[in-house]
Amino acid sequence: MNTQNSGQVYVLIPSHNRRDILCATLTKVRAQLPPKTARLIVVDAGSTDGTRDAVKAQCPSAEIVDGHADMWWTATVNHGLKHIAKTARAGDRVLLMNDDIDLAPMALIRLLEASELEPGAVIGAVNIVHRPGEEAQVYFCGGRYDLRFARHKVNIRGGHPGMSPRHVFWKPISCTVGCW
Predict the structure, then answer these.
(1) DSSP letter for each residue of 84-131
(2) pLDDT grade, residue 79 (50/70/90)?
(3) Is the pLDDT of residue 24 over 90?
(4) In what order do the strands lie in the sheet containing 143-146?
């Protein structure tokens, strides 16, 4: 992955009172993206469980943005994006993550490689659920996708009016990561 030509990578992780879960995720992120590769931004929404101290002890390069306890996920994300916007430039990329992500090996590298291949695309990880005796199910943004038709089973019932297959972009990057 060549991040020098691609701009800065910011990893934005909102969290509230999930110190141990967040620290486990930070370990996985840093294993794939060292400080020279990505700036790690944690938005702490008023945690009272020692999150700030634990993050600073485990990951001194992480930037902690203070929020408050009545911020929900979207507010913490927006708060973090405002922080990033102070230094971001054209070509920079933001990788938004929950604090409880279980990362496959090389998952973040693959997402960033995909963003280099398709700079105008929104790139996201998918959750693939394999149940014995059933076809694998793909979930993204809270809904299940039927990859045969590239339809979101919750938000785009039967496809979007005026949307033809040429408007749908889906390219598998690996068995656990895809582009939308």
Answers:
(1) HHTT--TT-EEEE--TT--PPTTHHHHHHHHHHHSTTS-EEE-EEE--
(2) very high
(3) yes
(4) 127-129, 137-140, 143-146, 151-152
